[in-house]
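sry for the spam today, last one i promise. struct tokens for design, 345 residues
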């Protein structure tokens, strides 16, 4: 009798789960529907930081954020070219997303509680870990930030870096003079021209700025870090399916590295892999794509377009690029880093 009751309960649970899944798959996704109707993804990126998003000599956007946009387009359309890049300043990015000008932000945007709870937006999975730092001239004789008493510091309007800088100098009772700019390139020009003694922003962006200086060796990034700056994509609240698409797409790029799936071997692994996790991720079995209203090959198409997370990082800002930023906390958890893909099953 007990076994019979248990079997009946399991069947009831399975039926309920299937009913919920069917109902979820009928709920419309205004954002995904609009993207498909328009035939392209509107992706918000920065106005120009090497390593994340910067036009090359042909005007083609290159960098981690730009390629994440391309990969998402590939997951939706099986075509990484079906993306429209919309450069946004720090002070306009969230307004542009909230108004519908862009579908998603992949734009060096720190995930914070107030941003997540007060702007009508949701941040998604962390794809980059960073911290606030300062860059100075190498010959300035500055060894630590505390040495910059009375310094003029370039900052970007609308970023967490404004508050982090003010909080730190207040905590050590040291005066400084902020000079605030709308865009990174404006702050960079002011720094080179001598209008500022230092530039304060996230260390990865400082590395990108330094790589595009006339003489990068003239500049040094101080080793201290003063904040946690986890970057995540942002989407509008109220469209759960679109949130799921962006969340699990980002996770899939990390999961691909964990599984050793690369841009070059994805096709072979899809044909030959016996591992159930690999078969699910690459669409041999269709349930992952079905759960978020995408083609079963959504993750496979994205990986084929941009590679796994490690390939993406090394190509855009790794130690063999001008940015030359060690992965540090952006290594996989199995390699001592913080990146950890949630189970895709």
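last one done:
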């Amino acid at each position: 009798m007990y076994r019979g009751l248990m079997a009946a309960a399991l069947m009831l649970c399975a039926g309920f789960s299937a009913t919920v899944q069917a109902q979820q798959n009928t709920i419309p996704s205004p954002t995904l529907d609009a993207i498909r109707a328009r035939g392209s993804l509107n992706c918000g990126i920065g106005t120009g930081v090497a390593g994340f998003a910067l036009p090359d000599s042909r005007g083609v956007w290159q960098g981690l954020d730009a390629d994440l946009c391309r990969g998402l387009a590939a997951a939706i359309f099986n075509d990484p070219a079906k993306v429209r890049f919309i450069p946004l300043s720090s002070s306009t990015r969230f307004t542009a997303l909230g108004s519908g000008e862009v579908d998603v932000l992949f734009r060096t945007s720190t995930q914070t509680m107030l941003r997540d709870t007060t702007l009508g937006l949701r941040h998604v999975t962390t794809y980059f870990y960073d911290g606030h730092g300062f860059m100075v001239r190498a010959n300035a004789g500055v060894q630590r930030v505390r040495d910059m008493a009375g310094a003029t510091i370039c900052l970007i309007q609308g970023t967490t870096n404004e508050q982090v800088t003010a909080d730190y100098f207040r905590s050590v009772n040291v005066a400084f003079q902020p000079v605030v700019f709308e865009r990174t390139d404006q702050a960079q020009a002011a720094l080179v021209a001598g209008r500022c003694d230092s530039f304060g922003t996230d260390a990865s962006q400082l590395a990108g700025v330094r790589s595009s200086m006339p003489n990068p060796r003239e500049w040094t990034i101080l080793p201290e870090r003063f904040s946690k700056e986890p970057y995540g994509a942002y989407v509008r609240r109220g469209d759960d399916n679109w949130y799921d698409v962006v969340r699990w797409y980002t996770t899939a790029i990390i999961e691909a590295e964990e599984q050793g799936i690369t841009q070059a071997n994805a096709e072979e692994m899809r044909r030959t892999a016996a591992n159930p996790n690999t078969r699910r991720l690459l669409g041999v079995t269709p349930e992952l794509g079905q759960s978020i209203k995408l083609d079963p090959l959504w993750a496979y198409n994205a990986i084929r377009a941009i590679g796994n997370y490690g390939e993406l990082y090394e190509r855009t800002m790794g130690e063999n690029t001008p940015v030359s930023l060690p992965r540090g906390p952006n290594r996989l958890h199995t390699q001592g880093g913080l990146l950890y893909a949630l189970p895709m099953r």
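The radius of gyration is 22 Å. ok im logging off now
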